[in-house]
Amino acid sequence: TMKSNPTVQDPLIRDESHEEDQANAFLIVAALIASLQSLLFGFSGGYTSPTTVTECTASTLSKLNCDLQLTSGVTSWMGSIVNIGAAFSSFGGGPLLDLIGRKKTILISGLIMMLSFALIAFAPSTPSDASGASASTVSMLILGRLLGGVAIGFVCCSVNVYIGEIATAKLRGTLGSAFQGSMCFGFVLVYTAGRWLDWRALAIVGLCVAGVSFLAGLILPESPRWLLQKGRSEEAAAALARLRSSRAHVGRLISVLEADVQQAEGGGRLSLAPLASPVAQHTLLIGVGLMAAQQLSGINAIMFYCQRILDSVFTDEMSNTFAIIIQVLQFLTTFMMAPLVDKAGRKPLMCISISGQCLFSVLLALWYNFSDHLPKSLSVICLTLYVISFSIAGPRYMNHGAKK
């Protein structure tokens, strides 16, 4: 057994160029397959925006809450309960990753997402002469959205970890951006498809995408690092060989990774003693504070109800068009800002991001209170600039504490 070597650098954090650690095309494919789950994150998260409206009219009778005669309370639960499911599953996601592995956790999230969309797609219709949706219809819809949130929680725990552990040091930053990019593209996809498809057809599309992602996930190799943690060295070498070019020195890479795993596990039981340090407490406060700021900024409400917010100002077709434009701009901003992170620094970008969100959310609130005296276009401008402000640094909140 190889002893831990304090001079060995962690292959997950070193950034120098290594000729012996060269990726092959399958590594890119594996990262993209894993990122399909984050695409489903965006698709599921944004599902309620194009499929529900604030007020049912003759032109919106095909919308989910109008077609099934849902109460405003049930409609609101369909959007908010996703966050509840994600919150609970995120606590169990970490232990599940260590227990069954990264690949199986990703596959489980795909299965749960399939069940989520299936429950919504095949929810019973409400007869035209009924006074409201039946209990079974409401239960299937709420359970479907709850399971969607559970799947999202598992996705957040597993996809970034998996991509980070299979990637080479040279590609880790680029492939790491696939998670956020795929999620943004999922929002764009659901908003765009929702323009032409009714709520049931849109759920079937989500079901099909989830099915494809699950089937594609079956060919993924398990994380070599996790396999080494479980003492399965031969399987780890085989998995790494699938992800590296023929010129890569897999044996050396496995030796370095194995030494790092043993060094990481050499500390024994988990201890809270290091948190006694003021520096550790300060770092923890920054990390938790930034993640709290990200969630409390209201971005989820904007993403889940973007079109419904605009519905109160514009026609359904026009609000859908504006919502698609906003999502496309978020998608583009996320990728445009990625190269600037290391040049401009995370802290300045986050200060700009938070300031912009505060300013434009306040302006949006003022517009709704004084809409009779202000142009309608101000609502679109505020929403757009709010989302762009978030995209400048919002996706990087979770990384700042570690880079501080």
Write up this protein.
It is a single chain. The chain has 404 residues and is mainly alpha-helical. The protein is 72% helix and 0% strand. The protein contains 18 helices and no strands. The protein has helices spanning 25-45, 48-51, 64-67, 72-100, 102-121, 135-166, 172-193, 199-217, 224-229, 233-243, 250-265, 278-296, 299-311, 316-337, 340-344, 346-369, 377-393, 397-403. It is globular, with a radius of gyration of 23 Å.
Explain briefly what this protein structure is:
This protein is mainly alpha-helical and 404 residues long.
Instruction: Please report which band the strand proportion falls in: under 5%, 5-15%, 15-25%, 25-35%, 35-45% or over 45%.
Output: under 5%
Radius of gyration: 23 Å
Structural class: mainly alpha
| Major sheet attributes | none
Q: How confident is the prediction overall: mean pLDDT?
A: 83
Q: Please tell me what the overall shape is.
A: globular
DSSP summary: helix tally: 18
Question: Which bin fits the share of residues in helices?
Answer: over 70%
> What is the distance, rounded to the nearest whole angstrom, between the alpha carbons of the first and last residues?
36 Å
Poorly predicted residue ranges: 1-18, 398-404
What order do the SSEs take from the amino end to the carboxyl end, as H and E? HHHHHHHHHHHHHHHHHH
Q: How many distinct beta strands?
A: 0
Secondary structure layout:
Layout: H1 25-45, H2 48-51, H3 64-67, H4 72-100, H5 102-121, H6 135-166, H7 172-193, H8 199-217, H9 224-229, H10 233-243, H11 250-265, H12 278-296, H13 299-311, H14 316-337, H15 340-344, H16 346-369, H17 377-393, H18 397-403
